[in-house]
Amino acid sequence: MTESAARGHNSDLPLRPLSYALGAEVTRIDLTDDLDDSVIEAIKDAWNEHHILLFRGQKLTPAAHIAFSRRFGDLDRHDSTPHYRMKEFPELLQITNRLIDGKPSETRNTGRNWHSDYSYTDHPAAASMLFCTEKPPVGGDTMFCNMVRAYETLSDKMKHIVDDLDAVYDIGLTAGINERDPQKTADVRRLNPPIAHPAVRVHPRSGRKALYVSERTSHFHGMTPAESKPLIDYLCAHATSPENVYRHVWEVNDLIAWDNRTTMHLALADFDQTAPRHMLRTTLLGEKSGFVV
Ligand SMILES: [Fe+2]
């Protein structure tokens, strides 16, 4: 099914589209309710169709955030990045500019280049659910792009080329990683050696193909970095063209669920860094994937 043909699905959920390219807000729902399985299935269908879902005005405790996320699959305990999870709730990763143990958090500049979560691991995240508890007066926006649409709008010849490629991911290309504590960075590098994943992934639920190349792709397996770079640059520019992007302006108590297999995202530094910004993320486990190169 093509992306456009997938539109227009009927769902009982009240939905408000967020942009032409991707995204929908689910309105009139309280995620702390004991939601019926049929509601969860409807959310899965809507998620499948729109790739990211927004739930506004949610009053989620860490436990409620985790409980809702678990309805969609097993959660990662963030062993790949152990320094950044909550001590009491390892299922929650903190993305914050608050002080932690008296020092500025190393996650304050996380996500500053286009990526899909945990692509540098052997279990790329299936999905992520990010909850905003504190935000600056303006800015701190997050942008999302649709990687199904990115794939489908390539020429047939280019589709054949990328279908055959494996993209190598290197955690060293994570934005800002060299500003972090050298010991922690060494730990994270040791836990996550460069790994190759298919450059095109087939979504297990929808069967649709999505491009899986990002600004954290170092090269294509079997090709040199110099040979790979023009194609990586082209594919990233194509995927993140403005008409393929939704830019989210956060409000406190927003939860956004995104599918990492069909989207990329970018956390913008467009805000006063002295103003607090605090986000909590659950991560849905994906299948084992890739090979260490
Ligand atoms: Fe991310």
Strand order of the largest sheet: 1-2-3-15-7-17-4
Small molecules held by this entry: fe (ii) ion
Sequence stretches where pLDDT stays below 50 over 5 or more residues: 1-10
Biggest sheet architecture: 7 strands, mixed
Radius of gyration: 18 Å
Order of helices and strands: HEEHEHEEEEEHHEHEEEEHEEEEE
Helix content bin: 10-25%
Mean pLDDT: 92
Strand content: 15-25%
Number of helices: 7
Structural class, judged by helices and strands? Answer: alpha+beta
Report the count of strand segments: 18
- Report the principal-axis shape: globular
Distance between the termini: 34 Å
Task: Describe the protein in words.
The chain is an alpha+beta fold and 293 residues long. The chain is built from 7 helices and 18 strands. A hairpin with a 6-residue loop joins strand 1 and strand 2. The longest helix has 15 residues, at 225-239. Fe (ii) ion binds next to loops.
Which features does this protein show?
293 residues, alpha+beta, four-stranded antiparallel β-sheet, 7 helices, 18 strands, 23% helix, binds fe (ii) ion
